[in-house]
């Protein structure tokens, strides 16, 4: 079904006139296609990257367009993919020649650009992404929608233009993309398509981790990430991507003792944190905060199920997982590791009477991430018992208040020792050596324990006393 509708308003930006003109000069048909058109109909924020398909050479059209644009922007050519990119202000114009064969982006073979528009649309991922608007001056803005993509947009359906098996085997990443779009747009994946994913899931192995991770980030950034991760699980894809999470699924019972299903619990935590923050890495920390529970699970007849040291084991697992998914191995990874490692600390705290020294230690260890840690812990409360939930939240509120209070008084965050190593050396006429480290550590401990305030005078007195106790003699020459 090709709808005879015009949508000139989608092409209001002057750049579309330039595109139209350049294509006409070359005697080419050209269309705007893909995400830009989809998002126009969805009324979503208009995308900054615009896909243009030419019936003929996409690279040739890119060059002609760049020539006509003010400042003659550079044309970046991706020869193997037969594509080209031109930047214009904040827009990124992506050009491709219509293809008859597979769309695959990972193909090592150069792509033959010899298809019609319909050939190209056939080879796209979903009907909603195959919508095209004509750039022909005589049909400017005409919608070409051979698969009822507009209808699917209205009904909220993710459907492939061809048999799902064909579309997915052209590029298996599309299996995850289907889930990502369903999660992002709150759409439903059509049944045959969903079944096909279940059948072909194994093919995800040939897709590069970078592309998979890109999609995972997008799922993670949705309002309710459990939708996407739940679908990844349901289709069996998750086992290839994040087996550590799948290992958390299930409830075991022994001697009448059951533990919670840590997979579904984790997804609830991720949804909770998504309500609280846009911080992508805090969301990752929530997803991974319990991964150490599978390898540490034990049953002890006296106490029931235990997961001793799961935070430590989990934080060690983060490195391997990040490496495998090509996630950054820099400060971001360290941040996620730290949050996983510390994820039970405030809980332990809030179970007891909250002492100042425990709070000081928490702030000392978490530093500037202490608020994020609290947010994670609050998200971790998934009890269905309203009384308990209220109590936990209240306790955490108390911890937060104590953090502010202790911080104002003791400035533990980004702790700088109030007495420097040089001062210690001078005080006892020492050369650099282990004694300095020992005294510094003792000062820090005394501050964290609340024995002395975090101030220079009292810390210096403490240092002198400690040194004497260690058998050091104070330097009497200098004050
Ligand atoms: N496409 C495809 N198969 C893929 C990736 C992309 O068929 N595996 C096609 C779709 O027509 C898609 C277009 O290429 O609309 C552009 O892809 P991309 O920029 O990755 O996605 P968008 O649809 O633009 O959406 P988003 O920006 O949300 O990723």
Question: What keywords describe this structure?
Answer:
single chain; 479 residues; alpha+beta; Beta Polymerase, domain 2; Hydrophobic Seed Protein; seven-stranded mixed sheet; two-stranded parallel sheet; 24 helices; 13 strands; elongated; binds cytidine-5'-triphosphate
Task: Produce a short descriptive summary.
With 479 residues, the protein is of the alpha+beta class. The protein is built from 24 helices and 13 strands.
Could you characterize what this model shows?
This protein has 479 residues and is an alpha+beta fold. Among the domains are: 8-155, 2-Layer Sandwich (Beta Polymerase, domain 2), CATH 3.30.460.10; 157-241, Orthogonal Bundle (Hydrophobic Seed Protein); 421-469, no CATH class. The protein has helices at 14-26, 35-42, 58-68, 117-122, 149-155, 164-170, 173-185, 191-200, 209-220, 225-235, 238-241, 243-246, 262-276, 280-288, 293-296, 310-324, 331-341, 345-351, 356-366, 370-379, 386-410, 421-427, 434-449, 456-469; strands spanning 29-33, 49-55, 75-78, 83-88, 91-97, 132-134, 143-144, 157-158, 188-189, 253-254, 257-258, 298-300, 304-306. The strands form four sheets. The protein has a seven-stranded mixed sheet. The protein has a two-stranded parallel sheet with strand order 8-9. α1 packs across α3 and α14 (280-288) crosses α17 (331-341). It is elongated. The structure holds cytidine-5'-triphosphate. Cytidine-5'-triphosphate binds at residues 34-35, 47, 49, 51, 103, 124-125, 129, 171, 173-174, 177.
């Amino acid at each position: 079904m090709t709808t005879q509708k015009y949508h000139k308003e989608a092409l209001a930006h002057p750049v579309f006139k330039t595109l139209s003109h350049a294509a006409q000069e070359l005697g080419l048909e050209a269309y705007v296609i893909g995400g830009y058109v989809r998002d126009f109909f969805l009324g979503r924020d208009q995308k900054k990257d615009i896909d243009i398909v030419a019936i003929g050479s996409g690279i040739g059209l890119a060059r002609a367009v760049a020539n006509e644009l003010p400042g003659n922007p550079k044309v970046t050519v991706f020869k193997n993919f037969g594509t080209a990119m031109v930047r214009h202000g904040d827009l990124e114009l992506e050009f491709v020649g219509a293809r008859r064969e597979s769309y695959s982006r990972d193909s090592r073979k150069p792509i033959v650009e010899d298809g019609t528009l319909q050939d190209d649309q056939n080879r796209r991922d979903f009907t909603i992404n195959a919508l095209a608007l004509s750039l022909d001056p005589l049909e400017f803005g005409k919608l070409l929608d051979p698969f009822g993509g507009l209808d699917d947009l209205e009904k909220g359906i993710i459907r492939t233009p061809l048999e799902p098996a064909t579309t997915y085997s052209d590029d298996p990443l599309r299996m995850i993309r289907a889930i990502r779009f369903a999660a992002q747009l709150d759409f439903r994946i059509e049944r045959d398509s969903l079944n096909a994913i279940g059948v072909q899931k194994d093919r995800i192995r040939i897709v590069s981790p970078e592309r998979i991770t890109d999609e995972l980030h997008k799922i993670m950034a949705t309002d309710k990430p459990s939708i996407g991760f739940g679908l990844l699980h349901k289709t069996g894809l998750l086992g290839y991507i994040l087996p550590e999470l799948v290992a958390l699924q299930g409830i075991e019972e022994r001697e009448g003792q059951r533990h919670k299903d840590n997979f579904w619990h984790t997804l609830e935590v991720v949804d909770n944190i998504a309500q609280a923050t846009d911080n992508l890495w805090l969301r990752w920390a929530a997803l991974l905060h319990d991964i150490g529970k599978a390898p540490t699970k034990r049953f002890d007849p006296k106490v029931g199920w235990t997961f001793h040291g799961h935070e430590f084991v989990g934080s060690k697992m983060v490195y391997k997982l990040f490496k495998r998914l090509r996630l950054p191995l820099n400060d971001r990874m360290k941040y996620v590791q730290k949050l996983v490692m510390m994820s039970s600390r405030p809980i332990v705290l809030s179970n007891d009477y909250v002492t100042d020294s425990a709070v000081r230690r928490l702030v000392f260890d978490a530093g500037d991430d202490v608020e994020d840690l609290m947010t994670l812990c609050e998200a971790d409360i998934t009890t269905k018992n309203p009384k308990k939930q209220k109590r936990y939240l209240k306790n955490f509120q108390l911890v937060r208040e104590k953090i502010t209070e202790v911080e104002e008084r003791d400035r533990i965050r980004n702790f700088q020792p109030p007495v420097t190593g040089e001062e210690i050396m001078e005080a006892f006429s020492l050369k650099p050596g282990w004694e300095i480290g020992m005294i510094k550590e003792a000062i820090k401990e005394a501050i964290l324990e609340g024995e002395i305030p975090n101030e220079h005078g009292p810390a210096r007195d403490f240092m002198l006393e400690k040194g004497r106790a260690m058998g050091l003699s104070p330097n009497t020459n200098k004050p």
